[in-house]
Backbone:
């Protein structure tokens, strides 16, 4: 076995450089100077005897072998993280650092309700949050940048395990003067696709809303303009169309100060499932299942 092995720090520098594509930004992400990161990577290249990164003034380009080694470095760093997690899991439950990714259509509505209860009940848990779209959050999970993800299903997040927390019903939101003749539950086939406002690509709520309606033409016709649910609400309040909102956003008061009305969507699958997922085989599985119980209980109590 070779005495000269890459250090975890060098592998972290390598992975950060590929993630950010820039020496300065990679150094900031690693909390070191650019010269320190650059020197660490040169030492790594000297150690293994190959060039991993082609450096020019304008671009950073990984060699084909550099790409393969970086992929392996991601797996090595993840295994190192899980080795440390095994030790933490043997101690007190829900204690120490835990990094959780949360999608934007959940974070501002659910977290303010549940975080105070988690802090009160589990004071030794240091929960670090990272808000990302579903795709980015799942990538962060598999790259070891977060330990678990709070997201909405169905969504293909790779080789993960998880627990469903609760169902989050979808509602149709529309200007007040348009709701006079609408029933308490609005059927999907009555939605005017030319006035439907949805989130931009990258937000899974858009796909959940379209799937609930089971109308393929909505994907092509809907005006997908909103960057956030709050933006969509302002557009609807100004008479620009109608949109779909989840129950948790309504419970959090997203319609406060508007004249918008909301009616439940009448469909075969009118809800999205809120779930906590983690990497399959994680040594902290017991912690995550306990956290799922805590989140489930806290969200239920908060809605009472």
Residues:
């Amino acid at each position: 076995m070779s005495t000269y092995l890459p250090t975890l720090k060098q592998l972290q520098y390598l992975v950060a450089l590929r993630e950010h594509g820039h020496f300065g930004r990679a150094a900031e992400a690693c909390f070191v100077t650019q010269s320190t990161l650059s020197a660490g990577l040169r030492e790594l290249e000297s150690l293994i005897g190959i060039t991993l990164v082609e450096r020019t003034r304008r671009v950073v380009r990984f060699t084909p072998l550099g790409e393969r080694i970086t992929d392996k470095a991601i797996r090595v760093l993840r295994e190192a993280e899980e080795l440390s997690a095994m030790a933490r899991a043997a101690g007190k439950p829900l204690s120490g650092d835990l990094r959780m990714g949360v999608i934007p259509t959940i974070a501002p509505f659910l977290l303010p309700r549940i975080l105070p209860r988690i802090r009160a009940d589990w004071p030794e848990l240091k929960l670090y949050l990272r808000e990302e779209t579903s795709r980015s959050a799942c990538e962060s999970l598999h790259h070891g940048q977060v330990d678990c993800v709070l997201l909405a299903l169905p969504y293909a997040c790779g080789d993960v395990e998880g627990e469903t927390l609760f169902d989050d019903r979808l509602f149709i939101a529309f200007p007040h003067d348009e709701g006079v003749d609408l029933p308490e539950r609005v059927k999907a086939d009555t939605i005017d696709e030319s006035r439907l406002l949805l989130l931009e690509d990258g937000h899974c709520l858009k796909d959940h809303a379209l799937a609930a309606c089971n109308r393929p033409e909505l994907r092509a016709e809907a005006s997908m303009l909103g960057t956030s649910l709050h933006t969509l609400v302002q557009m609807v309040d100004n008479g620009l169309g109608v949109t779909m909102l989840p129950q948790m956003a309504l419970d959090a008061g997203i319609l406060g100060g508007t004249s918008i009305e909301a009616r439940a969507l009448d469909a075969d699958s009118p809800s999205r499932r809120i779930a906590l997922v983690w990497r399959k085989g994680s040594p902290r599985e017991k912690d995550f299942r306990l956290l799922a119980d805590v989140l489930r209980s806290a969200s239920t109590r908060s809605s009472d």
Remarks:
- The domain at 8-87 is CATH 1.10.10.10 (Arc Repressor Mutant, subunit A).
